[in-house]
Each structure stands twice: as C-alpha cells, then as structure tokens.
Amino acid sequence: MLKRYYMELRQLRYFIAVAEELSFTRAAALLHVSQPPVSRQIMLLEAEIGTPLFERSKQYVRLTAAGAHFYEQARALVAAAQAAVVSTRRVAAGQVGKIAIGLGGTAAYLFPDALALFRRRHPEVELVLNPLNLAYHQAALVEGRIDVGLVVLPIDDDELETRKLTRMRLLAALPAEHALAARRGLSLRDLADEDFVMVPWSKGRGFGRLALQACRRAGFVPNVVQEAEPMESVLGMVAAGAGVALVPESMDKLHGRKVAYRPIKESYAAAEIAIAWRKGDASPILRAFLACCPNGCGGTRKGAG
C-alpha cells in the first residue's frame, strides 16, 4: 500500500525560503517568524520525505541533489495552490465559468443587447447558447438544461423565479396578397374563417398556446391546416400561402415582401414575457447575467405570476 504524505503548504513555503536564501536565519526573517519553527518544519518535511534536503554546517547551508529536485516541485505546488485560490475567487465572483441560455425564437430578439453587455463585462465566462423555442424554456429550466430562459406569464411552477421583461403583442401574419392585408388593423374575428398555420399548441407553453387561447376568447377555434416550428417556419408557410398566423411582434421583419403584418385590435392578444431561472440558484454568473437584462416594469415573481 502506498504511503500517504501529509506535508503542509506552510512547510513548502518555509523550504522554498531556505532554499533561496541558503540561510535559516535570513529565511526566518523573510517569513517574519523566529528561526526555531523554520528549522523544525524543515526537519519534519525531511522526515516525511525520507531524505535530507539540505547539507548543513556552521559555514554554509546547501541543497542536496534531492533538495534541488524538490525545490522545483515545491515551487510548482505552491504556485498551483495560489492559482487555485485565485481562480476559485474568480468563480465565486462570477468572473469565470459558464452559463447556459435558451436562445431560440423570441429569445433571439430579446437577449442580444443583454448578451453583448454581458460579454463586455465578463469576457472569460462561456456562454452556452441553446436554440430552444420559447415554448420549451420552462421545461428546460426545470430539467437543468439551461440556466436562463424566457416564459410567457403567468406560469404555475414554484421551482422557477421570473422577472417581467416586456409585453409583446400578437400580430396577424398574412400572405402579402391576402384580401385582409389591405386593412391597417384586424379583429381576431376577422380571421375566424381563415386557415391557420400554428406552432403546435400542445407542446410547451409558448405563443402557440397563447394564439389558441386568444382565438377561443374571440369566440372561435382556429382551423389549423399546418403545424410548424420554430416560428420562422410558421412564417415561411404563411409566405408560401398556406394560411395565416398569429405571431409575436418581434418577428415582423421576416419575409417582409411576402408576408403582411397587421396589428390585432383586442388588447388580450398579447403576452407578458419574463426572464426565468431556477429558484434558489445562487450562481454569481447567473446574477451577473440578470444584471445585464432590462428590468421591464415588474418585480421578481416566484412561481405563478
């Protein structure tokens, strides 16, 4: 069985000082201690290693061959210990490490400024960008696949904390040649007889479910002829003439000439978007990222907001 060694960093520092000064007296003065403790710790270190590290006489102190070898190793060990302390403090301060962020769909339009600011402030933190649609951020947060994401409020999940970022309206997305595109604004009832392209509402908790709820509140169930995801694919189908869609206003620049975007008159055809993270997550990197995000108009909410 291999012998275990229990040398201390203090012993290594004492040894390095003596090796560099070649004097127990000068080493003790450099270390701001008396000479006897230095001599004793060197003797204990030699006993632990099992070989003399110094040749001693009244005229000189010299490193043995083993001592010269150990000097290089001891310096590396002390330097590694110091580096470990520094790097650990930097992790604790949120200066290094990594953070996983949901960045698909709407998040790609809301997070860029925060990401740019975070990169400037914390250039050594790795940003792991997960291209998840907003509908799946809540589940990904709970499962630990991402550290930060977006949710549509309200949510019923006491494992998450949220902070409102913005209120986002739903727009009607129409093929550019559609008859309703001639109007400046639309009521949801104007779309009751249209074919819809929609993000699968049964998956996740995003804009697909919100669009379905808005239509039902307006008194009809949309005739969904095509499901697609992400939202960019929905708009691609609209551009191809497959139907109409209800999309967040952040998407209103896609397929500009082939898709007409019109505001919806009903005030409830909108979503409160919040940034979300796991409750109790004390990561300093998370706190640093949240500090880079806009505060919106709401405070912190826990669970159902």
Automatic annotation (TrEMBL):
Give TM segment ranges. Answer: none
Report the InterPro entries cross-referenced here.
Answer: LysR_HTH_N (IPR000847), LysR_subst-bd (IPR005119), WH-like_DNA-bd_sf (IPR036388), WH_DNA-bd_sf (IPR036390)
Per UniProt, the keywords (alphabetical) are: DNA-binding, Transcription, Transcription regulation
Q: Does the keyword Cell membrane feature in the UniProt annotation?
A: no
Q: Which Pfam family, an example, fits this chain?
A: LysR_substrate
Which Gene Ontology cellular component terms are annotated?
protein-DNA complex
Which GO molecular function terms does the record list? DNA binding; DNA-binding transcription factor activity
Give residue ranges for domain HTH lysR-type.
Answer: 7-64
Database matches in PROSITE patterns: HTH_LYSR
Mind telling me which Gene3D superfamilies this protein's record contains? Periplasmic binding protein-like II, Winged helix-like DNA-binding domain superfamily/Winged helix DNA-binding domain
Q: Please state which protein family the record places this protein in.
A: Belongs to the LysR transcriptional regulatory family.
Protein name, per record: HTH lysR-type domain-containing protein
- The organism named in the record is Bordetella genomosp. 8
